[in-house]
């Protein structure tokens, strides 16, 4: 048993029921840049260049692609403002904010894992 909340599947069917939503989640969040983008936007709305500066190593092409994917999955909202020059801001949606607990748990696990493996 993984923990008290996740009962050990007693059949292949139950295992598949457990795996399907986990795979769905990983399909959306998978990749090098999606979680860093979500984390950056959890601190507030940002323009494209602000995101690129905050997320070390991401190219403009990769950022653009990932933002589009996150927008399609309703995790990020793109707002265009009628200014000169045109201003575009990205914001984490209410739905995107539902990932906060998941990200905090991933962080906590990562801290424990790092300490366990490298002692830091």
Structure description:
With 120 residues, this protein is mostly helical. The chain has a single domain, classed as Arc Repressor Mutant, subunit A, CATH 1.10.10.10. Helix content is 57%, strand content 12%. Strands 1-3-2 form a three-stranded antiparallel β-sheet. The longest helix is centred in the C-terminal third of the chain and has 19 residues, at 100-118. The mean pLDDT is 92.
Q: Which terms would index this structure?
A:
mainly alpha, Arc Repressor Mutant, subunit A, 120 residues, single chain
Count of spatially separate domains: 1
- CATH class wording: Mainly Alpha
How much is the average pLDDT?
92
**Secondary-structure arrangement, i.e. CATH architecture:** Orthogonal Bundle
Query: Helices and strands, in N-to-C order?
Result: HHEHHEEHH
CATH superfamily label = Winged helix-like DNA-binding domain superfamily/Winged helix DNA-binding domain
Major β-sheet annotation? 3 strands, antiparallel
**Structural class, judged by helices and strands?**
mainly alpha
CATH topology: Arc Repressor Mutant, subunit A
Radius of gyration over alpha carbons?
18 Å
Strand composition percent: 5-15%
Q: Low-confidence runs (pLDDT<50, min 5 residues)?
A: none
How many helices? The count is 6
Helix content: 55-70%
- Terminal-residue CA separation: 28 Å
Strand arrangement, major sheet: 1-3-2
């Amino acid at each position: 048993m993984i923990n008290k909340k996740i009962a050990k599947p007693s059949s292949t069917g139950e295992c598949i029921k457990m795996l399907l939503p986990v795979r769905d989640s990983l399909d959306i969040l998978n990749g090098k840049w999606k979680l860093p983008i979500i984390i950056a936007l959890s601190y507030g709305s940002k323009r494209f260049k602000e995101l690129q500066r905050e997320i070390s190593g991401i190219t403009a092409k990769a950022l653009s692609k990932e933002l589009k994917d996150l927008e399609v999955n309703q995790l990020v909202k793109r707002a265009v403002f009628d200014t000169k020059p045109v201003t575009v801001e990205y914001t984490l949606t209410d739905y995107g904010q539902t990932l906060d607990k998941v990200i905090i748990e991933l962080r906590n696990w990562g801290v424990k894992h790092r300490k366990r493996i490298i002692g830091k």
